[in-house]
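Appendix B. Chain record.
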Amino acid sequence: MINILLLLVVSLSASGGGTTVGLAQVVLPSSAAPVRSRALESLANEVLERTSVEADRRAHAVPALSGDRFDFPLLFLPCNAAVSDLSVDEETALAVWLKMGGTLILDWQGGGSGLEAFRESVETFVGALVPGAALERIPRASVVYRSFYRLQHATGRLMLVDDLFGVMVDDRYAMIVSYNDLLSAVERTAGGDFRFDVMPGGSEQREQAVRLLVNLVVYALCQDYKDDKVHLDYLKSKRNWRLPGEE
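C-alpha cells predicted for this chain:
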C-alpha cells in the first residue's frame, strides 16, 4: 500500500510582501510514498493561470512532523489502498494541525477495486484524528462547491462517487474525501500532455475535476467567506444563479 501527503505551502513572497502559494509533498515516516511532483506542478499552474492567487510553479517537500506545518493550510492524502495506521506522533501532529485550521483532503486513487476497504479505513482514520466526529456527505450547496467555480457535483479522473464527504471541525470541513482520483486528472507529462485518460467523460470531465481542485485550494485559503449574505445575493442577482434545490 502507498500513502502520501501533499502539502499546500503558503509563504510570504520575497518581492512586494505578497503571498505565494506553493505545493509540497510530505512523506510520512510510517508510510511509503511515490513522488507526485508533476501533479503538484500541474495544479500550481492551474491555480496560477485561473485565479488571482500567486502560485509557485515548483513542487516542494516538507516534513510532516515539522513545526512549519502550522504555516500550511492544505494537505492532500492520495491513497490506492486502505489508509494505514499512523504513528502516535503523526496522529498528534495532524490532529493539532486540523484543530488549528488545516484542511486535509483524502484522494482515493485505487479505482473500483478496494473502494469499500478504503471507505472503512477512512472511518477509522477520522476517528483517530477527530474523536467523536463522523464522515458525512457534503451538501451541493456547500461553499466547497462554489469557493471559485460553481460546481454541481464531484468528479476526478474517474466517476465512482459524485459526492464529496467531509468531517466538520469548528463549523468548517477540516477533512474532505474524494473517491474519484482528482490529482491524476490534472497531472501532465514533461511534454505538457495530460498523463492519464479521464473516464468516462473525457475532456469535459477533466475540466470539472480541475475546477474542483482549484475550489479546494481556494476553500483552504479563504474558508467560508462565500457563505456571507452579500456574496450570495450577488451570485443570485448578477449571475442568475441559485443554490441547488432552489426554484
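Further analysis of this model is presented in Appendix C.
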